[in-house]
């Protein structure tokens, strides 16, 4: 280890292509919280942060879509009354509309989550 | 003995004896005890998905849900929407990281992630309570159904289901149980869909006429219909309470979570849940069909009995009797599949609990597992006789609510937030579990006027307590950074990095406590 000191003026730049979305520090931890006793840092840490940020972002979007389905189903009886489709129509829509939407949402999430992982593997292999 | 009774007894006997024989006569052989627990981690997504769906479509999905739709109408359609939605949340937040963690039960996960025996004990206690709630519900429903269709005493249904479930769980191991449960799912889907088609066609083609005057319920021992923790309440807040419980509680069901580890890796586990969701979507189209038929042909019949009363009301005679027998067989397939799954999960959760005693008595790990399974079944059986009989959906939703307020925060924060500390998790578990217990006890024991005066959290605990448990866990974790366990980055890496990266030193084989980093 060299004894020469340098002035640090900014945060280190993440490795190209990792898409690291800023530091993911424990909210309640001190500045050295990432200095793990088992010593996990460097490219592996950047990779982890990148993939967790990507998956969290995807999870947020899918959860918002799921909430949309639930809210849509909640207001449906009122809308049906307003639109005059009647009780049988509301029953039919509530029975038949949400199931395929859930399935579509799950398949879409699965594909995107796997794509994030594939890209992560590719980035790791390309960039070391 | 009428033909309806003969058909029902035959259907129930075929399901129970056939399932027990499948498990007992031809159990799979495993090289190691871990393979016994996790089916050599070689179960494909579709077979695992069918087994997950089978465990999830319990007495509630097959009987109570349709009965509630018949009694209360449109607001109860939300229950099936929420039940499937819960699996979307499991897929989004939990399944792949949990499989990659390599831990086997929720207790193992808590110990591995937080390194705290206290948190492990709290999680084990909560898992045991949820498992017992589920088991008691299945055994009580089995008693009600057998009594309804054959006139046999209710305890006989519970005993028959418990004995068959214990026989399968003790001898079969995860591999045979998975195959059996997958088979039971397709059997249930075929029976309930086929009977619905026949009954609906009979109605549409004029072969069954609705009663001119309301017919009194033909149940020898009517179950009580009431509201518990928001379940059964058709008001918007009651529906919200059930939706929150379903969405956040599904991830903490012990019998569903141990299934994750039968998959070879995180990607396959994720696909298993999507396959399960596709099957559940198909299955949950059926309760509304029975609900509509029940509103027309069996108004006022208690929720748990409505589906089984329907064929005799619509098609009196041999056809109705045969359909009743088939539906009784399908119902018992549901009781057995869920009971079996819960027993395996409870056995795995409870068996590491007394290693010192086991060493003294020279009991092997499999021996401890079998002892735990038998003990759990016996306890559940006694509780099912002692506990007051209500609609089973009330009990099961209580389990979902408890899971949403305790295990959900631990799982979500443990998987996604590296700042979760052991003290934070313990505080959240105690506050969430304690609040649910107190609120439900007050609702059940206090006079109605007092419950009404105490406000909304008493009647609808889940939407209030789950956020409180999350907040407590975060706040206490922020205040106690010293109890954040060491090596969080490595643990998060194990959970989130795909297997293809082949991280050196990451062993994702399913681990029992003895193999974990404890």
UniProtKB/TrEMBL annotation, chain A:
The chain crosses the membrane at residues 58-79, 85-108. Residues 12-31 have a biased composition (Low complexity). Residues 1-41 are annotated as: Disordered. Keywords: Membrane, Transmembrane, Transmembrane helix. The keyword Transmembrane applies. It comes from the Bacteria. The keyword Transmembrane applies. This is Uncharacterized protein. It comes from Streptosporangium canum.
UniProtKB/TrEMBL annotation, chain B:
Its main location: membrane. GO terms for biological process: plasma membrane acetate transport. The keyword Cytoplasm does not apply. GO terms for cellular component: plasma membrane. Keywords: Cell membrane, Membrane, Symport, Transmembrane, Transmembrane helix, Transport. It is found in: Cell membrane. GO terms for molecular function: acetate transmembrane transporter activity; symporter activity. The chain crosses the membrane at residues 77-98, 118-137, 152-173, 185-203, 237-261, 273-293, 323-348, 369-387, 393-417, 429-452, 464-488. InterPro entries: Na/Glc_symporter_sf, Na/solute_symporter, Sodium:Solute_Symporter. It is a multi-pass membrane protein. It holds the Pfam family SSF. It comes from the Bacteria. Belongs to the sodium:solute symporter (SSF) (TC 2.A.21) family. This is Cation/acetate symporter. It comes from Streptosporangium canum.
